[in-house]
Amino acid sequence: MTMQQIDFSKVLTDDQVYDSMMANYDQLGKDWIQHQFNWMNNVYISFKDHYKYMIVISLVEKTLLFYDQMNIQLTYDQYYSKSYLQIDKFSITELCEKLQLPKETIRRKVLELEKLGVLKRQKKKIIIDRNAFYFVKPENQIRFTSKYINQVSDILNNDKIYSKKINQKFIEQVIKKNFSITWRWFYRMQIPLVMGYNEMFNDLATFHIWGAICMNQAFNYKKENIVISNRDHFTFNTNVIKGTGNKNGLSAMSISDMTNIPRATVIRKCKFLIDNEFIMLNEKKQYILTSINHTKIIPHQKEFFKEKAKFLRKVLNLLTIS
Question: Are 50 and 261 in contact (CB under 8 A)?
């Protein structure tokens, strides 16, 4: 067997990916918002409860960590061919620290997952039943994430930072072939990012609803504006909030239809968002973003986007040698 020679001059760094991504954000912002909104819809629709899903995938991430530590690599099909996933040394405290949630909340949600048959406890071990795989198998998410990775690779190609020409299908194949490691990278990015918004918005349902308003505004903005490569992260967000995209906001019913969250809950959460100045009503009595999102959201995004850059760098470097 011959060893593959790696040209280390072609290996990406976190800073290269982060700087290029932030500098060319006008080409990526709408698609990243759509990527995250699709993720949040999957989070909620599985159990009609954001936190139950986050608990399950946090446990899945722990199994992926075990395989990584044991130097065991599983494909997508191999991983989900098992009849169950076992987590040794299950700890409520560990889940609380990972998700930054109160013990009472975690304990209650775990009990509800047990009643649903998703989780089964055996002393200090916990089993994720095969029946739960339907809810957490990321078939659609792999497609969405691969599409976004491909868009980032095109920008890096244009910036002459990344030389390999790839396509979405190839990315999907590599992710699935190296699933136990690549999807752990994904969860290590995604879980802290989403739970960071949980703290900011008081709960994940409120963040989900805010995300629907944000996506609608970003899509309206992009409909009326051509993509310009040198519009950075700050400029893109400024234009989304202050530009023409805010002329057509969303009603509570539209948000409910987009998120599957009950309308009464949407109205209640939107009141919180209005009270905290994240959103307001336009002249059509539709919900739109306010300028306070600059000071509250952008600093948060910059910090967590460093983790996104790390995830993208790892996958793109893997694609280079695949």
Answer: no
